[in-house]
Description:
Elements: H1 3-31, H2 43-69, H3 71-75, H4 83-105, H5 107-110, H6 113-132, H7 136-143, H8 149-160, H9 168-186, H10 189-199, H11 203-208, H12 210-250, H13 253-258
Amino acid sequence: MEMAELTVVASSFTAFQLLFKVASPRLSGALCPGYRHVPAHRHTEWNSRLVSTVHALIVGFFCLYILWFDDAVNEDPVWGDPRLVKLNVGITCGYLLYDLVLLACNWNTIGDSFFVCHHLAALYAYGYVLSRGLLPYFANFRLLSELSTPFVNQRWFFEALSYPRSDQRVVLNGVAMSIVFFLVRIAVIPSYYSRVLSTVGTAAFERLGLGAQVAWILSSVSLDILNAIWMYRILRGCYRVLTGSRRKAKLPANVSNNHRD
């Protein structure tokens, strides 16, 4: 890995640390009065999710730009010019390292083994992208999944602020979260693996070497298994919210007003 890539990763790690420790508490307190009423032990997760949302927006829209306008990457998905993709992947690797440190330091409150597995699998694969500049199209395609993260985090913010699950904003966010999560993480699976299979056996694929081939396929399958598990959880939660809202709408007014979700 060259100094330029290491600098991007280190700068990203530092920036997200500062956002978590300095910027998020101040911005949250100034822009969201409810932040002050959230229990102190939940501030860590609040700040981490705000950082997660910022990372997702930066990386997600950068991914769309590359997908739409970077012809070199789209025409040669294995060995195309990786400069923009490496920048985006470097930002993500810095974020993943920051988040792993945060999880380790606050395991009792926000620790999650699924996130650890996800981060390690992603770092394993992205290491090849940063060090050798290979598979830029596929690395960029995987990062599109970050576009669902803001909706996931917003659901948590609503919960932390004690919004009832029947609140229209909560319901709309839940529906949007389910749709976007499905589109960027599940619906794209066939097209992703179709592109993967189209490269298998080609000269470009053989040039990767066994290590990179295994890292690519193993990390892809692992991440998609995790995405399928998360999709199931999201759909289950969305179903409960929607059916709960319908039940509440059918209750008499005096019952509905006293009902606690």
